[in-house]
Fold this sequence. Notes:
The protein folds into two domains: 11-138, 3-Layer(aba) Sandwich (Rossmann fold), CATH 3.40.50.2000; 160-341, Glycogen Phosphorylase B (Rossmann fold), CATH 3.40.50. 38% of the residues lie in helices and 14% in strands. The protein contains twelve helices and eleven strands. The chain has helices at residues 20-36, 48-51, 83-90, 104-112, 133-138, 159-172, 195-209, 222-231, 246-253, 265-272, 286-289, 314-341, and strands at 11-15, 41-46, 63-65, 94-97, 117-120, 180-183, 214-216, 239-241, 258-262, 277-281, 296-300. It has a six-stranded parallel beta sheet, with helices on both faces. It has a five-stranded parallel beta sheet with strand order 3-2-1-4-5. It is elongated, with a radius of gyration of 22 Å. The N and C termini lie far apart (46 Å).
Amino acid sequence: MKTSPKKNERRALLITAGGLGDTLLKLPVVRLLKEQDPGLIWDALGHSEWLEIGRGRYYFDRVHSIDGPFVHRMLSPDSEPPDDILAFYCHYQKILSYHMAEKSIFRERLISAGVSDVYFKMFPPSDNSKCHVLDYLLEDFRDNPFDPIRDAPEVFLSKEDHLYAGKWLEQNADSEHPRILIHPGSGSRVKSMNPILLLALISSVRNIFGARPTVGFGPADSWLHECIKKNVPSPIEWTPLQNHTVVEYASILAYCDGYVGVDSGISHLAAALGVPSVILFGPTNPGIWRPLGKAVHVLSADSKVFGYQGECHPENLLKDVESNVEEIIEILQEIIRKKVAE
């Protein structure tokens, strides 16, 4: 479960919960602190399936699951934490926690375990917050004003990741045309792409770019996947992307020429990889939660673009989304051109 630190080794621990997007937003904080103290080795405690994007890829040496005993055994007011749990924390000289910030007992027990530098911050920020969430996360550590391009999350892939992508692309991608990935889901139908819009986008990407689009689906997107399988006209070819780990997905996404998505963790991942991206926002405030990056364009869209609950009949709502599709494709073409020209 754990290994002893080497002599004179200095280690720090990031504690975070939440989804993929929340995890990616913490990476610039770790990057800044690594730059300020290059000798400090960082580990992470959180949802390991998301944190793997940073393990052995610049940010983290070790990753521990938050579903294990490391947090909940520290919170019981009726019993002291076991020695092995305290020993886990006392290996760290610095702990940065965005989880359980409201639990003073957690902080007190970390300090009593011998951690000399303990930092807690509430996440997500309060509803009264007016700044971008990354500005909020960095405000206690930076000397310069917030810069949404310089300070944006960045993901680094390993040699093995690039090899994985190469094999997948060899089997599934069309090398003669731009690679366009559409990720319509967001974990909830409210923020997910309307299947009518998705159908129209698949058709437009095929017609305008000459490309066979790749459409990514997460575990909660089965309703969208089934709808598209049933309703995409048979002459229009598209490639599903599903059942991949986040690292595998990132490896493939990094080789795409353009991306279209919604307010989701995968959209934050596309931005962090530098993929030219058009991202649709609806019920969430983009001023606070939008993905950041040089090649990112965020569109605020009306409710017709999101979460259609009924039967998937393209003829009923196609006219409602035509203007949205045209705008998305035009912006995507422009940001791809800019990226190529750099």
